[in-house]
Known about the structure:
mainly beta; Immunoglobulin-like
Amino acid sequence: xxxxxxxxxxxxxxxxxxxxxxxxxxxxxxxxxxxxxxxxxxxxxxxxxxxxxxxxxxxxxxxxxxxxxxxxxxxxxxxxxxxxxxxxxxxxxxxxxxxxxxxxxxxxxxxxxxxxxxxxxxxxxxxxxxxxxxxxxxxxxxxxxxxxxxxxxxxxxxxxxxxxxxxxxxxxxxxxx
Length: 177
């Protein structure tokens, strides 16, 4: 598993690890938070699993996928509630566009929760994703989390290449597959 680091210290004890496995048409993500879980603002799980804009304004997990030979990339957001979204970008921070081919039926979410550990697992069926993921070649991956505690947001990533949090920066997409 990869260790995520906060952009700034939070003042509470947390550790976040993440991993991904991409085999054939299934991409599996696993995020594990250890520490003072009760202090994290975790939305209640719901059965509707809706596509929602702005999940990054609360606790959520994020996945960025960029074709190493193109400026195009995808951003996935996953809430503890089960809500999600997927956006496509033509280049760095270009216009935010929802990826219409991605639908709830292609996403499965499972969570486990104890006093000191929260685990979030998501499986994505990638058969309906845009051409950006269908190309053969190297991809750059970013695994990130936004953690909300006491009304404040904390930004966790594999790497923070700038003097402010920016999950869209390709230098933060540290995994090559």
